[in-house]
Amino acid sequence: MMAGLFEAQESRPLADRMRPAKLEDVVGQDHLLALEAPIGRMLGQGRIASMVLWGPPGCGKTTLARLMAGKVDLAFEPLSAVFSGVADLRKVFERARERRNMGQGTLLFIDEVHRFNRAQQDGFLPYVEDGTVVLIGATTENPSFELNAALLSRCQVFVLRRLDDAALEGLLVRSEETEERGLPLDESGRTAVKAMADGDGRFLLNLVEELFRLPAEPILDSSGVAATVQRRAPVYDKNKEEHYNLISALHKSMRGSDVDAALYWLARMLAGGEDPAYILRRLTRFASEDIGMADPQALPHALACWDAYDRTGSPEGDLNIAQCAVYLATAPKSNATYKAFSAAGRAARMTGSLAPPAHILNAPTRLMKDLGYGSGYAYDHDTEDGFSGQNYFPDGMKRQRFYGPVERGFERDIAKRLAYWDKLRARRHSGGSS
Hints:
Blueprint: H1 2-11, H2 14-17, H3 30-33, H4 38-44, E1 51-54, H5 61-71, E2 75-80, H6 86-101, E3 106-111, H7 118-129, E4 134-139, H8 143-146, H9 149-153, E5 156-159, H10 165-179, H11 187-197, H12 201-212, H13 222-228, H14 241-255, H15 259-271, H16 276-291, H17 298-312, H18 318-330, H19 336-350, H20 366-370, H21 411-429
């Protein structure tokens, strides 16, 4: 019988056998669990409030909820929103009522809580409000987008961090203590394993379990690790928050002229399976929004790279996208066109009923000529400077300056032209000569 128990223990996955038995064993979340941290203070007072734990996979959300329940003597009722429905919730609430009548509380833990629809989330509220359960929801998605406002107003949101290098190293050491032997890794091999885990403790321990099945020799370096174990797929969902976070990081890195950071975020998106056409659309937009006339070649360059990618495809065409990102990140920046068009749009909405001045209207019929269409129009090419200085804004609308070029790149030359034309316009209107 004892042998059977021992075999059952050994057959459990390493990650399960190493699951922390007390809060002090939880790694990487001191910002929440330290004595003066938010959850640490609550537990120190012998209480726990309803909350949402938001964090990446493998950072310990389920374990933390279970340990919190034990710390404050609450019955732990775990559910997964992926596999549970209304009937399961009803059973939990009924058991919770019975416990409350006997003087014990219940902690309801719902993993992937964002998978419940809005109506199901609303169904928690009465039981949270009357104290039947303390609710802890776990999610990898941004609660602001995925959870009801009513539910969020009743729960504190705590952000769990991906495990850093020190926390992952701690798990490696603890796994060696559990197995009572060292991993067949040199320093570069240990670094490679931690890099492959990318902050996911559960994935790290699954890797470690595979490594413990290898012979003690040879000792693996980083190359040996890469050839032996499976690399973790990047955490990236093209339809969720990470998609928008990474494109924002790429855009802002290029705007900040940080070409190396831009290449990093681009590589992250491509490795995660992002649609290259989506990236190329954003790069093309960037060429006008953040560079504009500071480098008029930015836009044709972006289009050329897009065309090259369409001709070559991936992976060869990935280099075309990278070239585009490098060009845009290193180009002089100006949002003058973007600001000018926004300002013109505001003016157009306010003055949308004003007609163009009659002198710039064509007059294809006699009636239109009789009404003054085209009368007094000065053909700019016939003037001495190729510039008539006439008014092209609607009658009754003061001339406005929307476009203000910056003193960078090609816009420096544009600014000189505008200043020259302003001088000529002022001279023409004052009756002087050029």
